[in-house]
Amino acid sequence: MTQPIATHALIGRHDPALNSRVYCSPEQQALRFGLALLLAIYAYSVAASLPAPQGAFIVVPSAYALLHAIFGLIEERRGSSPALSACMSTTDVLLLMPALWFDPLPSTPTLLLVGLFFGLASLRHRRDTLLRLTLLMVLLATATLLLRSYFMPLMSYLPLLASASIASILIGLILVFRQHTVALGELADLAPHNDPDTGLATRTSLYAVARLLWPLAHRQNMPVSLLYAVIDPTSAASTPDQRKQATQTLARAMADVAQTQLRGSDILVRYDALHFVFVLLDCPHAQADAVALRLQRAFDEAIATQMTAAQLHISATWLPTLPLALDPMLNAMQEALERARLRGQAQQGAAYTDPDTLR
């Protein structure tokens, strides 16, 4: 019986270069723009209760909306990143403190911003980052309100507690929906699907194949070879947009070569941005080296007319006699590929690794 197909830490469970983990980016920006408009209207409505100059309380929401418009343009052009998400959440937190401090109403309705910003952060950050951000918002809101009560003794606590209760209920509701969204995302991640850039299968498809095909191959003594192909660009791109474009070009070139050179029964997987795994069914490992050499030559010919130069390195292994999980095999192929690079043999067919030695 095969071992469970564990998730290898070499690259991670998800494909970060293929699947964005930020949800609903345009909708997030729309909510922030709507918030800025509502804050400006609120400041205009209670302008008589605000300290002079009252115009500053309209400028602040406008500047907030402008900053997020810039962040949105950057995200649209370069994609999501942890640093950009951190900048967006920091801007949200910076708006929270003056909104609470200058809120003239006893119920402090701007306290509901804590729930809104928590919801926006839950669409953008992972659990550990979200927890830290939530603690920061709660601490800053509490400190702001305590200082405000010290300088403004007439502040009414009962309406404030009502607003805090509503904000807490809102956060709880967001947590329920977030848990539901995470569960649906995990189901979607585990479902086999194709990479939109190349049309090849993705990592989840590879693990599904291993779970279903390995037992059958063992039972029928079917020889199965695996090729682990990595593209190393040799021409440096100067901007992130150029690097992204070069990665897509090389990935499509590799996909075209694999679909042309390999059989229809073989399983072609884009494992990461420039990492590929090819499962060669009914292929003895003695024949895999010729296949790897053919792929390398065809790839060199395919990119000869393009502006992006690269080298294709391939390592190989085979399905062992006794059951073995997929992750140790992939790890061993990665190590074999690195050894071949050090010896300068990465362009001479496949660098082999014996899976039976991994036990």
From TrEMBL:
Keywords: Membrane, Transmembrane, Transmembrane helix. The chain crosses the membrane at residues 30-50, 107-123, 130-151, 157-177. It holds the Pfam family GGDEF. The keyword Repeat does not apply. The keyword Transmembrane applies. PROSITE patterns: GGDEF. InterPro entries: GGDEF_dom, Nucleotide_cyclase, Rev_trsase/Diguanyl_cyclase. Residues 222-353 form the GGDEF domain. SMART domains: GGDEF. This is GGDEF domain-containing protein. The lineage of its organism: Bacteria, Pseudomonadati, Pseudomonadota, Gammaproteobacteria, Moraxellales.
